[in-house]
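ESCALATION

Customer reports they have been waiting on this structure for their group meeting. Please prioritize. Original submission:
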Amino acid sequence: MTFEERMAQMAANLERFERDGVERHEAIEEKHQALAQSVELLAHLQIKTEERLLKNEILLGEVMESVNSLARIAHAHEQRITGLEDRA
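Update from on-call: job pushed to the front of the queue and completed.
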């Protein structure tokens, strides 16, 4: 192989290497953008989930207060009925 042939082969290899590098870089860039979008979406969903969880915790607290209030009323009625039955 002559010097010129070696140089041409090296130039072709370098050109192919550069082309492959650019293609790999573009593929990595696309994956990076997709990953960034996924992270952004997950962060948004996490915030929404936390907001709903807080609302549910507040609602659960209100329900528990109502249940406790009804339990106190039921207990008071039970005592009243028992008192009336004892008098009868």
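Sent to customer with the following note: The longest helix spans residues 3-87.
Escalation resolved.
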